Amino acid sequence: MKVHFIRSGERRYSMRIERGDGPALVMDPAPGFDPDLPHDMVHFVVEAALGLKNGVFGQIAAGGDAGSFHVEAGGTLSAKERQRAARKQVAKGAKLVRAQGREGELSELAAFLFDVDWRSATRPDSAAQRAARGEADRTRASLSADERARLDGARPQVFGAFDRLAQAWRALRPGEALVLEWPGLQPIG
After folding, report:
1. What is the phi/psi pair of residue 85, to 5°?
2. What segments bear the compositional bias annotation Basic and acidic residues (predicted)?
């Protein structure tokens, strides 16, 4: 599965996901633009590094839509085929979201924690960052000892990927894309 993170404007991004076994999915615009790392790229890295199968990208790889992507318009499908694919996509996506369990929640919590920690180390201190660090401390305390150890063990891999991908993302001009192949953490093509 290839995930295209597209810098679609000065302060905007979109995503396109190519899957070998189904129609391409898109989200345009995607939420959480950031000049260093967009929100969904944070999720991609965290889920790949932790080996989460029921997070956003694991669900999409399993044939779902994570509740936020839709079948791409155009392409080789007729309008009727696209409608049928979209209905199947929504049904499968809803089933996967219901079945995600603690791993889906851990994806959200871990993405938040790694994001706050990485940004705190790379950006000047601010009131907003101090508030986010306080929330992160409360979130970290809600994790089990095993979950905290799992996150701590993945920290070097996650932060290394954040650093590499942020450099590549910042270099993109509007209309250009950074492409990752799930669950790899190196840009392709």
Report:
1. -60, -40
2. 132-144
pLDDT at 20: 84
Phi/psi region, residue 130 (left: phi>0; alpha: psi -120 to 50; beta: rest), is alpha
Please classify residue 35 by burial: count the beta carbons closer than 10 Å to its beta carbon, then call 0-12 exposed, 13-18 middle and 19+ buried. exposed
Say how many domains are in the chain: 1
Instruction: Read off the pLDDT of residues 94-110 as tens digits, 9 standing for 90 and up.
Output: 555 555 566 678 888 99
Q: Is 187 left (phi over 0), alpha (psi -120 to 50) or beta?
A: beta
- Which among 46, 154, 156 is positioned nearest to 110, based on CA atoms? 46
47-90 per-position pLDDT tens digit = 999 999 888 898 888 888 877 888 887 666 676 776 676 566 55
**Alpha helices in the chain, H assignment, sequence order:** 39-50, 56-61, 79-99, 101-122, 127-141, 145-171
Q: Domain containing 154: what range?
A: 2-188
> Residue 116 — very low, low, confident or very high, per pLDDT cuts 50/70/90?
very high
| Length in residues, the chain | 189
